[in-house]
DNA sequence: TCCGTTTTGTTCTCCCGTTCACAAACTCCT
DNA sequence: AGGAGTTTGTGAACGGGAGAACAAAACGGA
C-alpha cells in the first residue's frame, strides 16, 4: 500500500512501529499534563497499552533517548517522537464531503491539537455551500485546485459516498495531494508515491461479530 | 488483545484473514449487484485490492468453495463468507455518546445493511434526551442495563469524550456486553473475554504525516 | 476418450514483527 | 570507592503472515 521511492532515508522505521508512535505520543502528553517528569518503559508501556519490551524496541529505532536505571524524560521523549512523526510542523488538510461524517470530522478538536489544520471543507452539493461548520465555510468542490495550491496542502480526507470517492481521489492526486485518508467504502486506486489509509467502520464491526459468534459457539460446547 | 478461551473451535482462521473477509464480502456484493455470476480469484482480488495468492489462501481457510478452471460462484461464496463472519444473523448494537460522531454513526446506513441494528442511542447529557436521531430517540445512559437485557446486546460502540470512555466500558462489561468498538482516545482496560477494537483517526493522520515528511526529505536529497 | 487450457488449493520459503533474556549503564547508599 | 539495585538497549529465538510456484482438478473441444 505504502509505495516508497528510491532512496530509503537514513533511519528506516518499521511500519508497525510508525503506527504505534502516535499512541506513545498521546500517552506521554497525558503523563506530562499529570505533572510526571520521568517515567520508566514499564509505566509508559502500561499507559500506551503495549508490552514494555516492544515499547523499548520501538523507541530504539529513534535513538537512545532514555537513561538506564532511570527511565525517560517525558517532555524530551515527547518532543523527539513528535519530531520524528512530523507533528511539530503544521499540516494543512482539506476535507471533501461535508455530510454526516464530514461535519463530525470538521468539528473534531483532536486534529487541530496535533498539528493538523483544516484549511477547507468542500462539497459538490450547492445546497451546502456557504454553510459554516466549525468556523469554516463550506465551498464548492471545484475550488480544490486553488486551495491546494494556495495552502500547499499535502493531505486530503475523503468523506463522500463510495461512488464519488475514486473521482475525488483522482482530482486530489492531480492537483498534488500525496496522502489520502479515505472513509468511503471500496478500493481506491492511486499512482505510486501516493499513500492511502482507509478507515472502514463496518469492517471493524464485522470483525467483532466474527469473534462474538465464536464466543457463542464455544459456550454451547 | 483478542483473548480467546479454552477450546479453539474446529477451523482456526488467522486474525489477518478475518480482517480481510469483510473486504471480500463487499467486493462480492458489488460484483453480484453488477450481475456477475462467476469470478476468478484474480478478478475478485483486484476488486478487493489484494494479491490473488493471498485471496486464495484466505478462502482456503473457509473450505473449498471454488471450482478449478472456473472460479467462484459469486453468490455462493458471498453467502459462505457472510455465514463465517456471522453477518447472516442480526446483531443488536448500542451507541453511547451522541455528539458529533455519534450522530454520524447513528445515521450511517452501512451498519444496518450488514446486519447491525442500532437498538439504542444513549447519552449522559439530559439536554440530548428525547432528541430523534435517525428515527431513534436518544435515551439516558442509565437505561443501558435494561436495554442490553431486553435486546440481548453483545456489541457496544463508545463515542463519548476520552475521560468518560473507561467508565462507559466498565458499565457495558458489567451488564454483559463482550465486544466494544471504541472511538475515544486512550487505552481501555477490560477483562479477558471482552474484545475491544479501537478506531483512532488522529493516529491515521499522524502515520500519513510521517510518510509525507519522509517524501519531502527525500526530495531535497 | 484424450489432450490442452484454465484456475484453484496448497506447499515452501522468506520476511517482518513480537517476545525473551541479558549485558551494559546509571543511581543511590554505605 | 564500591556494591546493590534499577532500567535501558539489543541480540537472538520464535511465530505468523506474504508471496512465489506448482500440482491437482475441472472444463472444453476434437
Ligand atoms: N456516517 C458514518 O458514520 C460513516 C461511517 C463509516 C463510513 N462512512 C462513509 O463515509 C462517507 C460519508 O458518509 P456520510 O454519512 O457523511 O454521507 P453523507 O451522504 O451524509 O455525506 C456525503 C457528502 O458528500 C457530498 N458529495 C457527494 N459527491 C461528492 C463529490 N463528487 N464531491 C464532493 N462532495 C460530494 C454530498 O453532497 C454529501 O454532503 C460514505 O462513503 C460512508 O459510507 C460514514
Ligand atoms: N468527531 C470526530 O470526528 C471524532 C474523530 C475521532 C475521534 N473522536 C472521538 O470520539 C469521541 C466523541 O467525539 P465527538 O466529536 O462526538 O464529541 P462530542 O463532545 O460532540 O460528543 C460526546 C457526547 O458524549 C456524551 N457523554 C459525555 N459523557 C458521557 C457519559 N459518561 N456517558 C454517556 N455519554 C456521555 C456527551 O453528552 C456528548 O453528547 C471523542 O472521544 C473524540 O475524541 C471524534
UniProtKB/TrEMBL annotation, chains A, B:
Keywords (A to Z) from UniProt: Cytoplasm, DNA-binding, NAD, Repressor, Transcription, Transcription regulation
Entry-linked Gene3D superfamilies: NAD(P)-binding Rossmann-like Domain, Winged helix-like DNA-binding domain superfamily/Winged helix DNA-binding domain
Locations listed in the record: Cytoplasm
Keyword DNA-binding applies: yes
A Pfam family: Put_DNA-bind_N
Binding site for NAD(+): 97-102
CoA-binding domain residues: 86-187
Description of how the protein assembles with itself and partners: Homodimer.
Stored NCBIfam families: PRK05472.1-3, PRK05472.2-1, PRK05472.2-2, PRK05472.2-3, PRK05472.2-4, PRK05472.2-5
UniProt family annotation: Belongs to the transcriptional regulatory Rex family.
Function: Modulates transcription in response to changes in cellular NADH/NAD(+) redox state.
Name by which UniProt lists this protein: Redox-sensing transcriptional repressor Rex
Classification of source organism: Bacteria, Bacillati, Actinomycetota, Actinomycetes, Propionibacteriales
Gene expressing this chain: rex
Amino acid at each position: 500500500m505504502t509505495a516508497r521511492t528510491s532512496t530509503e532515508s537514513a533511519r528506516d522505521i518499521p511500519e508497525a512501529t510508525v503506527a504505534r508512535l502516535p499512541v506513545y505520543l498521546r500517552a506521554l502528553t497525558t503523563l506530562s499534563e499529570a505533572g510526571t517528569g520521568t517515567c520508566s518503559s514499564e509505566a509508559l508501556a502500561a499507559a500506551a497499552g503495549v508490552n514494555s519490551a516492544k515499547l523499548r524496541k520501538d523507541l530504539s529505532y529513534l535513538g537512545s533517548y532514555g537513561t538506564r536505571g532511570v527511565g525517560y524524560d517525558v517532555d524530551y521523549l515527547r518532543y523527539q517522537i513528535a519530531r520524528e512523526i512530523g507533528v511539530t510542523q503544521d499540516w494543512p488538510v482539506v476535507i471533501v464531503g461535508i455530510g454526516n461524517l464530514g461535519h463530525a470530522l470538521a468539528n473534531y478538536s483532536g486534529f487541530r491539537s496535533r498539528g493538523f489544520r483544516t484549511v477547507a471543507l468542500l462539497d459538490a452539493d450547492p445546497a451546502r455551500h456557504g454553510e459554516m461548520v466549525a468556523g469554516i465555510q463550506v465551498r464548492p468542490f471545484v475550488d480544490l485546485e486553488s486551495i491546494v495550491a494556495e495552502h500547499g496542502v499535502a493531505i486530503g480526507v475523503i468523506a463522500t459516498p463510495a461512488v464519488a470517492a475514486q473521482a475525488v481521489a483522482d482530482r486530489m492526486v492531480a492537483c498534488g495531494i500525496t496522502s489520502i485518508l479515505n472513509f468511503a467504502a471500496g478500493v481506491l486506486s492511486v499512482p505510486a508515491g501516493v499513500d492511502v489509509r482507509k478507515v472502514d467502520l463496518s469492517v471493524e464491526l464485522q470483525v467483532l461479530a466474527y469473534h462474538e459468534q465464536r464466543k457463542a459457539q464455544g459456550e454451547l460446547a
